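Board notes, transcribed. Complex of a protein with flavin mononucleotide.
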Amino acid sequence: MNVEDAINKRRSVRKFKDKEISADEVMDLLDAARKAPSSGNLQSWKFILVKNQDSKNQVADACFQQNWISSAPLIIVVVALMEDVKRHYGVRGEMLYSVQNCALAVENLLLRATDLGLSATFVSAFEEGMIKRLLKIPDHTRPQAIIPIGFSDEVHDTKLLESLESMCYFEQYGGRVEDFDEAFYQWSGMAKKQVDKLLRKVKKGSVALKDRINEKVNKKD
Ligand SMILES: Cc1cc2nc3c(=O)[nH]c(=O)nc-3n(C[C@H](O)[C@H](O)[C@H](O)COP(=O)(O)O)c2cc1C
């Protein structure tokens, strides 16, 4: 599956078939996650693999009773190592980069899951203290995402997307344009390219015309 297809196909799934994920597939998911970009290539994450049913039930409970989570054959919990990032990049690293690094690892994992015919959901609504106690996650690290993964048993509606017009600006934040397509066309330089192409054609045409006139005049002589 190419990247565009994986992006278009990926959806959050909350109902799973009763089917195990193979060890190879789990390894492929982890391999994709660890290849995500990270600040200074710190790879400031840990992945906890959870398949024990009792643990999955408790994880679901700690996710404010999102009970569907426990029906996934596998849960991967992504933990941020903020201290590592703080050491290199100070408070900004601790507060921002460490979160961004994990989010990127999760997105890689979600796309690879789609590619493998699996489905997964990014879950962040959980009681952090409960998850830390349950999975023995140490101080100075934070669980960032809980990802139930499995084979989808769900049919999705078409996803509603906000228009690009509502989320894109040109060169600086804010400002309204009358016609987004036209503004994009102008901004992208396509308009200039088209005009230049037209001018080149006209120029070429006028040279050819000049040559033809000269040819005729020369014949008369
Ligand atoms: C940071 C974050 C937190 C989320 N937390 C939850 C959650 O706790 N429970 C849940 O069912 N879905 C959660 N989701 C999934 C979103 O609801 C879902 O991505 C969104 O509705 C768009 O649907 P799609 O993933 O199918 O495109 C979360 C997604 C993100 C990015």
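The chain has a mean pLDDT of 94. Strands lie at 45-50, 74-80, 119-120, 142-150.
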